[in-house]
Structures are given as C-alpha cells and as structure tokens.
Amino acid sequence: MIEDELALLDKNINEFWNKFKSNVSDTSCQMVGLRDAYKDINKAFAEKLSVKLKEEERMVQKYLEYQNQICKQSKLIQEKRENLLKLIVEVNGKKQDLEALTANIQDLKEEYARKKETISTAKRTSEERLERLQKSVDLYKDRLGLEIRKIYGDRLQFIFTNIDPKHPDSPFMFCLHLNEARDYEVSDSAPHLECLAEFQENLRKTKNFSAFLANVRKAFSTMV
Description:
This protein has helices spanning 2-144, 196-206, 209-221; strands at 146-151, 155-160, 172-178, 184-190. With 224 residues, it is α+β, with helices and mostly antiparallel strands.
C-alpha cells in the first residue's frame, strides 16, 4: 500500500517536473522572442531616430545658414542705407551750394548791370560835358586865344595866348580832367595860380565852364 502511494507520488512528481520544464522552456522561448522583437523594435526606432536627428540637424544647419544670410543681407542693407544717407546729405549740400552759387551769380549779374549803367551814365555825362566844353572852346578860341590839347592820362591841357601884350605868343596854361567821382579836377597851372582851387570848386558847383575859363584867363592877366 505504501509502495503504491510512493509510486503514485513519484509519478506525480515526474509529471509536475516535466510540465514545469515544458513551461520554462516555452517561457524561455517567449523571452527570447520578446528580446529579439525588442531588439528589432529598438533597432528600427534607433534608425528612425537617427534619420529624424539627421533631418533636424539639416534643418538646424539650413536655419543657421538662413540666419547667416539674413545677417549678411541686413548688414548689406544697413551699409547701403548709410551710403544712401551720405549721398542724400552730399546732394543736399551740393544743392545748397548750387543755390548759393546761383544767388551769387544773380548778385554779380545785378552788380554788373548796375556798374554797366553807372559807367554808361558816367560816359554820357562825360560826353555831354566834353560837348559843352567843346562848344565853349569853339566860342572862345578866337576871342581868348585858347588852344586845347589832349595829353597823357586822359587829361586836357588848356593854353591861353594873347594875354601878355608884350609877348602875345607867351603861353599861360593849366590841365583839367574828370576824377573817379566824375568831377572836374584842375591842376598844373603855369604860371602857378593860387586861386585855382577856388575856381575848381566854383566850376563843380555851377557847371559853368565859360565863366570858369573867363576867370582863369582874368587871373593870368593880373600876373602880367
């Protein structure tokens, strides 16, 4: 009886052991399969991750390149802007210089026109005075024995004769010209007349050249 029970127990133990071994073997196979599947999944994930990282790395590289290009373009734009501002300043400066030059040219034109008119007026005045002088000369030439000569410096030399009865050909003379103010200026009387300055002043005031010549001749006559 006891032997039967021991045999049955031994049988049960063997069955349990065989069943345990079979379960362990299946579990081991499952573990290996899981391990291989995990390796495959991990490898695929690693490959995908590597591809993703490379793509992101390229994207970062492109972004950095774009950033670099943008910085260069911004710097170039800033330089062009500064150059443009300098050019605008230069153009404005040249414009102001041109306006100032134009104004100066206009002032010079106006000044030239005024001087031209002044010269023209002075010329007409001189011509009128010379015309009156010539008339006076013609009037008194024969009567006063007067001769007029043009000498250096645009001066006129007046020579009287027939003053000294003893020496009718003896000359009595003085010079006359128009100064920068276009006034009569008398000088170089021979013989010297102390009253010549007074005659000159009267001539400037009265413009009466005939009276002036008569007074000068009279003054010379008193010296004979």
